Amino acid sequence: MNSSTSGKDIPRKFAEITCLLEDMHGVAVEGHAPNQSDCFYKVLIKDLETGCSNIGKTIGSINDELE
Q1: Cβ atoms of residues 62 and 13 within 8 Å
Q2: Of 19, 56, 7, 48, which is closest to residue 31 (Cα–Cα)?
Q3: Which residues contact 20 (CB under 8 A, 6 or more apart)?
Q4: How far apart are CA 48 and CA 41, in angstroms?
Q5: Nearest in space to 61 (alpha carbons), one of 2, 19, 4, 11
Q6: Number of alpha carbons in the 13 Å side-chain half-sphere of residue 2
Q7: pLDDT at res. 8
Q8: ∠ at Cα 16 (10, 17), nearest 5°?
Q9: Could you report the average pLDDT of every consecutive run of 10 residues in the chain (67 residues)?
């Protein structure tokens, strides 16, 4: 980290990404369950889409701080 990034909240944002990835991992593991309804899988897909979107927003926020 150079002096231009000191004092910024980037490490906390990486921790946030880690939490989101852990949550998404749990959702993906639930998808391993056989013989579930289509509705069940659709909910899991929606949860993964939301998680990916949130990760993308956080990455964008980090990029904004670095500019």
Answers
A1: yes
A2: 48
A3: 51, 54, 55, 58
A4: 11
A5: 11
A6: 4
A7: 76
A8: 95
A9: 65 97 97 96 98 98 93
Read out DSSP for 6-56?
TTSSHHHHHHHHHHHHHHHHHHHHHTT-SS--HHHHHHHHHHHHHHHHHHH
Distance, in Å, from the CA atom of 43 to the CA atom of 36, rounded to the nearest integer, reads: 11
Which amino acid does the sequence have at 60? G
Structure tokens at 33: 């369950």
Q: Which residue has the tokens 């904004």?
A: 64
Of 61, 56, 67, residue with least CA distance to 9: 61
Task: Look up tokens 């069940």; give the residue.
Answer: 40
Which residue reads 């949860």 in tokens?
A: 47
pTM, two decimal places: 0.83
